[in-house]
Amino acid sequence: MSTAIKLDDQLVELAKAHAQIACRSTPRQIEYWAMVGRIAEQNPDLSFEMINGLLQARAELKAGEVSDYVFG
Question: Which pTM does this prediction carry?
Answer without folding.
Answer: 0.79
